[in-house]
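Q: Here's a chain of 162 amino acids. Please give me its 3D structure as tokens.
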Amino acid sequence: MRDPLQNPFPLSDGDRHSIWEMLVRRDIDAFLAADWAMVAGDFIEEGFIGIDGRREANPDHWRLSFPSLAAYRDEWLRQARDFAGQSFAEDARTAIFAATRLEGVEISGDLALARKKFDGSIRKVDGQIDIMKWQTVYYCRKHEARWKVCGFTGYLPNPMGN
């Protein structure tokens, strides 16, 4: 059984290791702290684009909800603050890491395509269960000597299909 806190890419695979650290560890920790400053340097602002798949398999339903990094940042912070205001019956960090997989990273020169999938849940104090079941495809670019996100197509169904 894999340790969800352990980066699946060895240090010898530096590019994939770095991408995982950015898209999993830093993203989760920043989200839980509702602290955009922790991840702000992981994005390329110029030309950034984010597509909201609205958990729909049909691309006709997808929306250009994040035409700028500022638009994405504002929604990310809204979601993080909402999450921080909830009460959970288990450790939220552990539950999110357990639900998160980033194992597919395709690299071509200074570009990368990273597939991050969520498949799990988190129990709330009131007995409800929040299901975490979606996926995001990140477009990354090596910029200023490190990997950064230049866009994504996210909030897609996991798995894709009807």
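Q: Can you summarize the key feature?
A: The first strand starts at residue 49 and ends at 52.
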